[in-house]
Every structure is written in C-alpha cells, then in structure tokens.
Design goal:
By secondary structure, the protein is an alpha+beta fold. The chain has helices at about 35-45, 50-55, 95, 110, 115-120, and strands at about 30, 55-60, 65. The protein is built from five helices and three strands, in the order E-H-H-E-E-H-H-H. Strand 2 (about 55-60) and strand 3 (about 65) form a beta hairpin. Helix 1 (about 35-45) packs across helix 2 (about 50-55). The longest helix is centred in the first third of the chain and has 10 residues, at about 35-45. The protein is globular, with a radius of gyration of 15 Å.
Amino acid sequence: MTASPAEWPYPVKNFTCHMCGNCCRGDGYVELTAKDITAMAAHFGMKEPEFLERYCTYHKPTHSWHLIDQDDDLQTCIFLTDDNRCRVHGAKPEQCEGFPTRWRSSNIAEYCAGWRAMEGLPPSDKRTI
C-alpha cells in the first residue's frame, strides 16, 4: 500500500517514473520484509523457501533476506527486465515501492530520469546508482 502524500517524509512534486531502471541497478540492496517474501512467492506461485533459495541471499549481520542481482557489471536487480520493467511489479517489495517518495539517495538527481525531469534538469547518461 502506497503512503498518501501527507505521510511522505520528503517534499515531492508530481513525480512520474520514466522507467530508466537506474533505481534497480548499482550499489545497495533490497531488504525484504516477511510480507514482501510472502507476496513475491505467491506472485510466482512458489512456496516461500523455494522463492528464498532461488532469488535471495541471507544477510547474517542484519538477520534479513536480500534480493540477489543479475550476473552483470551494473548490479541489476534480479527482477528487472531488459526493457526496464519489473517482473514483480504487482508484488514489489516495500523498499522499492517507497522510492523516491519515502526514501531516496542524496545523489538521486545524478541517475533518476523521472527526478531530473521533475526538477527541470536535462537527461543524464548515468546508468547506475
């Protein structure tokens, strides 16, 4: 469930995603909640242990599950397609759903096409966070 604009911790204008896919690439990780795991496993018609084994890695220091990346130099999310669509859009993790309204990196204007357009900036050629 997406938070209403009144609940967003940052002022956000009318943001429109340009589907550049850059928020799904680069340094960082997607930490999953129990609800995320249940929803994504159901999305694929899988049992949770099977989903975790196939798409996740366990991060011992935080006792949490993280999505794995594709095997590429850009550190692309396992669920990002070649045309920058999310294979789990209907069940996307809470962390992904919250970008950029509930959280964003300090350098968002360097890589996010939608953010750049919203701020009246020219497109960027940067491909990752």
